[in-house]
User: Which sequence fits this backbone?
């Protein structure tokens, strides 16, 4: 479709894409052996357009079933496709559930993850049985009676700089568990409950574990102030269950 020039680092450009995707049919973002992933589809589309085999860098590695409206990726290319045309070129060959929203050139040293100042995630809970069949792929269908005010009080303990070891799934390779949560808002628009969380970074399953813990507090399993003790414990076993992936959305990455 576009003439491909041999890769030469001195001639390559770094392209930044902002993408959205429905993660329902994928085993997460990152390439995995014998698995259907977002990254694999994007890299396959680039090969189809230019013949280049690239390795995408992403702002975050969303898990299976997790969605994105503002995932950021970057890759190097020697292609002559103009920066603003990458959006249209890729959308012409990508699956219907992955769309490029913006495409631009950036500095060669730009890194979507390391240069991010903060990330914003939303988590959606759908709170009634009617309509569950339609929302089950895009929200956590949870019909438990929830004390929203108690959840909001508990959320207040999360804001700030803390060791979030209690909210990180086992098996994470990170050594530093300290993160700064800039805001955590809970909005009740029945039948939807929306959690908005912004932080300078997130641990593995951090948003989903925080959500699961807040839901258990909302059910009355323990009081709001227990969140403070859970944080101090630095023990995953003290926090609540991990909320399911389909309610989670990567909304925006700020630079």
Assistant:
């Amino acid at each position: 479709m576009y003439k491909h020039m041999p890769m030469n680092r001195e001639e390559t450009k770094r392209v930044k894409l902002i993408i959205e995707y429905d993660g329902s049919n994928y085993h997460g973002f990152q390439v995995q052996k014998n698995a259907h992933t977002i990254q694999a589809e994007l890299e396959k589309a680039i090969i189809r357009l230019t013949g280049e085999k690239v390795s995408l860098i992403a702002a975050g590695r969303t898990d299976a079933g997790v969605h994105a409206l503002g995932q950021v990726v970057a890759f190097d290319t020697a292609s002559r496709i103009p920066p603003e045309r990458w959006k249209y070129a890729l959308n012409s060959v990508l699956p219907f559930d992955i769309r490029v929203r913006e495409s631009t050139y950036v500095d060669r040293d730009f890194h979507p993850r390391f240069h991010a100042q903060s990330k914003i995630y939303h988590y959606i809970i759908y709170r009634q049985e009617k309509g569950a069949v339609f929302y089950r792929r895009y929200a956590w269908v949870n019909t438990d009676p929830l004390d929203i005010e108690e959840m909001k009080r508990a959320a207040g303990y999360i804001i700030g700089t803390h060791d979030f070891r209690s909210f990180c799934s086992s098996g994470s390779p990170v050594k530093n568990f300290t993160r700064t949560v800039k805001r955590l808002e809970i909005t009740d628009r029945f039948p939807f409950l929306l959690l908005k969380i912004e932080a300078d970074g997130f641990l593995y399953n951090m948003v989903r574990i925080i959500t699961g813990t807040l839901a258990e507090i909302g059910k009355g399993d323990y009081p709001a102030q227990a969140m403070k003790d859970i944080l101090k414990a630095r023990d995953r076993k003290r926090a609540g269950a991990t909320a399911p992936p389909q309610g989670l959305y990567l909304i925006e990455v700020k630079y």
User: Anything to note?
Assistant: The beta strands are 13-21, 57-58, 67-77, 98-106, 118-126, 140-141, 160-163, 178-189, 192-199, 248-254.
